[in-house]
Amino acid sequence: MANALSLTRNRVHDILTSIIGDDRVYFQPPESIKLKYPCIIYNLSDTSNTYGDNISYLLNVGFDILLVDRDPESIYVTKLLSVPYSTFNRYYVADNINHWSFTLTTTIKEA
């Protein structure tokens, strides 16, 4: 499962970097990292299996995605919404910086 999750995370990372740029996408960044705005922060949020005949045949993987931008009308919101299986969760402002929360779900067919 770890290999499949790693491959899935790499695909998600590629999608996100195509939206905002390679140096502004962070996977579970440590607190010591100075973020460059606008940026996308993402992490694994959920996994679940789909079974048939007591055998797992699909692995559903969810990622929490957070868009952080000083611009309250960020151009990246619609770009993230255009990603298949991406859903908008909520918007909030913290420290005068805008945050948009999304969930991206993908499915892996298991052998």
In a few lines, what is going on in this structure?
The chain is α+β, with helices and mostly antiparallel strands and 111 residues long. The protein contains two helices and five strands, in the order H-E-E-E-H-E-E. It has a single domain (2-109), classed as 2-Layer Sandwich (STM4215-like).
Number of helices: 2
Distance between the termini: 11 Å
Shape: elongated
Number of strands: 5
Question: What string gives the helices and strands in order?
Answer: HEEEHEE
Helix content: 10-25%
- Widest sheet, order of strands: 1-2-3-5-4
Give the strand content. over 45%
What is the rounded Rg? 15 Å
Mean pLDDT: 91
Total individual domains:
1
Give the helix/strand class. alpha+beta
Question: Which CATH class?
Answer: Alpha Beta
CATH topology: STM4215-like
Largest sheet: number of strands, sense, barrel closure: 5 strands, mixed
Structure in words:
The structure is a single chain. By secondary structure, the protein is α+β, with helices and mostly antiparallel strands. The chain has a single domain, classed as Phage tail protein-like (STM4215-like, 2-Layer Sandwich). It contains 2 helices and 5 strands. It has helices at 2-20, 76-81; strands at 25-27, 39-52, 55-69, 86-94, 97-109. A 5-stranded mixed beta sheet has the order 1-2-3-5-4. The longest helix has 19 residues, at 2-20.
